């Protein structure tokens, strides 16, 4: 039967509300009137749901929703979904209006990334899931970045807890090491353990991620000895590059250490050669030392990056990459 009652009891209709739609999706007391054929075109899960839950088959239930034979709006059967209304509206807008379309280089809001990944995975909407997956993987790559990470996601909390939680939620573990490196090296341990408030909202990590991020924050500090052994050895006078032609080279190494690690130690074992040697000029360091240190620096970064997932309790990079390919729709 059709819903009736006072205006205040009427369902809250949100866009898209298609006047010629033949099914209504309900989420958290909100309703969208859409087309069975459009949803079925993009999602085999929706297609199977409608087949198994059609009125002619007795309104049977499915794991994703059910047609209720007593609730009809504008002669359209209602399907109750457990998804958030925000996620559902973003996905429907993308399917109907081509909203939230971004080029490869354009940042994508976190709310869109989350909706595309959650509902894209749940309902097997291949295009949306893979678009959001690509944004995460581009922002937090498996390969050691040769420059600062270029984050293609906007609107998340400052310490990236939303991104880390989402990646774990949808099983995209390959982005976790780079995300933890980017966010947790500057995040206070107290925030990792207890959460923090930003603009009136509390952000916290899920229980598994609390441990991973706390470990990651400390392991980043330890990895400096793996990444930069040439700095310590040169500064302490243990070794000197053969054929060094400048008496100031070792002094510049000490200056570099002082600038980057004092008074507080850095937690960035993947600092680029350009960043760590910004004060090295052609006049101050000889060509032989520069060339030798640069090779050793890159080798140290590579060793540290290769070791990082294991220190977090994750699989190797090769396994993480293989799993990321497997979960693509």
From TrEMBL:
Superkingdom field: Eukaryota
Span of domain BTB: 21-96
Record's signal peptide: none
InterPro entries: BTB/POZ_dom, SKP1/BTB/POZ_sf
Gene3D superfamilies xref list: Potassium Channel Kv1.1, Chain A
The protein's name: BTB domain-containing protein
Species the sequence originates in: Hydnomerulius pinastri MD-312
């Amino acid at each position: 039967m059709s819903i009736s009652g006072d205006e205040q009891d009427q369902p809250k209709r949100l866009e898209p509300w298609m006047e010629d739609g033949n099914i209504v999706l309900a989420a958290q007391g909100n309703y969208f009137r859409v087309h069975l054929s459009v949803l079925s075109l993009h999602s085999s899960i929706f297609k199977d749901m409608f087949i198994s839950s059609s009125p002619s088959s007795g309104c049977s239930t499915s794991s994703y929703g059910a047609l209720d034979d007593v609730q009809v709006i504008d002669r359209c059967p209602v399907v109750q979904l457990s998804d958030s209304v925000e996620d559902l509206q973003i996905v429907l807008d993308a399917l109907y209006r081509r909203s939230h379309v971004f080029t490869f280089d354009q940042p994508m809001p976190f709310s869109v990334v989350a909706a595309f990944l959650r509902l894209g995975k749940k309902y097997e909407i291949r295009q949306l899931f893979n678009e959001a997956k690509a944004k995460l993987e581009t922002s937090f790559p498996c390969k050691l970045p040769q420059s600062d990470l270029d984050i293609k996601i906007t609107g998340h909390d400052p310490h990236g807890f939303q991104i880390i939680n989402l990646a774990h939620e949808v099983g995209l573990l390959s982005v976790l090491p780079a995300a933890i490196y980017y966010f947790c090296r500057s995040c206070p341990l107290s925030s990792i353990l207890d959460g923090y408030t930003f603009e009136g909202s509390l952000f916290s990590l899920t229980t598994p991620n609390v441990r991973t991020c706390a470990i990651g924050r400390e392991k980043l500090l330890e990895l400096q000895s793996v990444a930069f052994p040439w700095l310590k050895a040169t500064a302490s006078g243990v070794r000197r590059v053969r054929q060094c032609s400048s008496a100031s080279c070792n002094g510049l190494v000490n200056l570099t250490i002082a600038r980057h690690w004092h008074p507080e130690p850095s937690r960035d074992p993947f600092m680029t050669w350009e960043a760590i040697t910004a004060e090295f000029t052609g006049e101050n360091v000889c060509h032989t030392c520069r060339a030798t240190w640069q090779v050793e620096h890159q080798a140290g970064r590579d060793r540290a990056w290769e070791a990082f997932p294991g220190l977090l309790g994750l699989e190797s990079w090769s396994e993480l990459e293989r799993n990321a390919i497997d979960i693509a729709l």
